[in-house]
């Protein structure tokens, strides 16, 4: 069933569990992630990034499809707009029925980030939609990442007081689009931010985080765990193997299916790992 993010994340945070959030580019992702979540009986966040929307063109076709998958699910499913820098797109997602949005002003100056985030919060909350925002940029999306980028707990507390966001994405050592799982996370900093703000924390760039490191981060207080690159890499590897095994294959389902199976199994495994 379609669910809001605030209550699902609050329950996970209170229980010390991680909540898996996986990026949807194609509708098959949504179907596969929900089937995996149903298999292990865990809630899941389906997130469509602004980049993925731009790949499709308009939001509505992919967004409406993902919402339909969520409505039909046997477990709680949040439909979330990820990394939106365009506030018109945020409004569109709210109007379409997304239950959560991320406004990403991390690359802007603190005061600008605060002002725009607060506007997004006012609009989204008026429609019952949760808002995630970011403070202290997790890089690697479009260019090189500064591995020393960190969220300051005092600045995070100020940001919360000024914006009233429901979840906070923080920089604690991860980076987007890592294809090896070698990120070291600052668990002391996770604890310090967790003491400074009273909302669930979000880890971006989780593909670069190994299982044992992730468990430590969740135990330190990390709640929403965003994963994309790791699943794309798995899908493409498995699809390439299927294509190589049958050079005459024409039907796209013949190589999509093994790719989907691989990421479905991995999402089921990750959801279980995050739940502890
Ligand atoms: O917002 C999406 C995530 O931060 C995904 O990052 O591709 O490095 O796993 P990733
Ligand atoms: Zn991210």
UniProtKB/TrEMBL annotation:
Organism this protein belongs to: Georgenia halophila
Name of the protein described by the UniProt record: Class II fructose-bisphosphate aldolase
CDD domains documented for this protein: TBP_aldolase_IIB (cd00947)
NCBIfam families membership: cbbA
Cofactor section: Zn(2+)
Superkingdom, natural source: Bacteria
